[in-house]
Amino acid sequence: MALVINDILGESRDYYRTVKRESAGRLLINPRGSLYQKEEGGSSFLYLRRLENGKKRHIYIGKVDDAHAFRVKEGLTSRAKGVLSLRAAKAAMKELGMSSLEIKNEDFFPLLRELFQVMADAGLWDEGLSLVGSWCFKVYQNFCGVEYFPDRTLDVDFAIRLPYRGEKVNVGNMLKGLGLEEVINHADGTVFYRSGELSVEFLKDRMGDGLERNSPYEPDIGIAPVAVPYMRILLSNPMEIKARDIGRVVVPSMAAFFLHKLLVASQRRKEGKRAKDYRQVEAVAKAILAQPAMLDDVKRIAGGLHKKWLTKLTASAATGGADLDAANAVLRRAEVIAVGR
């Protein structure tokens, strides 16, 4: 009988772990805040209201009957369900006698906050480290007014500017101290870190032909980053964000992200990843159009790019057609298309 009870308790713990993880994921991929409507010229328009740094922020969503407005409504509903489900799962886990540490560590935001704090404590944000990839885009969505759409990812990508000139640290050991497992890619010697479904990888700018003639391990920082083309665009244009949810984090400017994504999207072999890149490009482009200063930033960054890169990114934007209307508008207004030609 005792074995049967233990089996049931074990299954219950696994069940609520899964519920909690899925609920936490739902909170990560859906917008926060509340919706309200404004009537103007006989039409109804939808806005998202939320608190940022102690101040109310109002974000225009679109007409109430737009497809995008419908997706935002769905996202908010999903988030509300996620909050309730997460609370219920935590309560059940507590009733089952699971430790508070285990309950906390299965949330993804707390782990991300710990990751960001580790980077801050080591001074890495000030020495050329940036959060890139899908989590960078999530930061834009949550704190920079970029439109929402679901994009569940548990891969955290950091880019590092090399050569590293800060104080010697061992980031790999710090991550292992957080409970992440070191995973070595024996094909090229690069290393990433994993904790359950969450993985952390480091990237660097690829120079020349991209062939590694020496070990990728960087002893002064204790990581072995993957060489990725065009990464210098992101690393040369950092932007710092401070927020209660995530602490301090450095990401590329949205102008740099926009140009970089246009470059890499057309070179994707998998259609799904290419479509995801273009969707992010268009979402960021809409935010850039709303802020003229960002158009100046696009023009400045594009002006420093190699002519071949400009040709590639303008061709990439052209292939998107109507799906990249905002992206092409950004390139025209920033006079990048003329520069590329």
UniProtKB/TrEMBL annotation:
<protein>
    <recommendedName>
        <fullName>Nucleotidyltransferase-like domain-containing protein</fullName>
    </recommendedName>
</protein>
<dbReference type="InterPro" id="IPR058575">
    <property type="entry name" value="NTP_transf_8_dom"/>
</dbReference>
<dbReference type="Pfam" id="PF12281">
    <property type="entry name" value="NTP_transf_8"/>
</dbReference>
<feature type="domain" description="Nucleotidyltransferase-like">
    <location>
        <begin position="114"/>
        <end position="291"/>
    </location>
</feature>
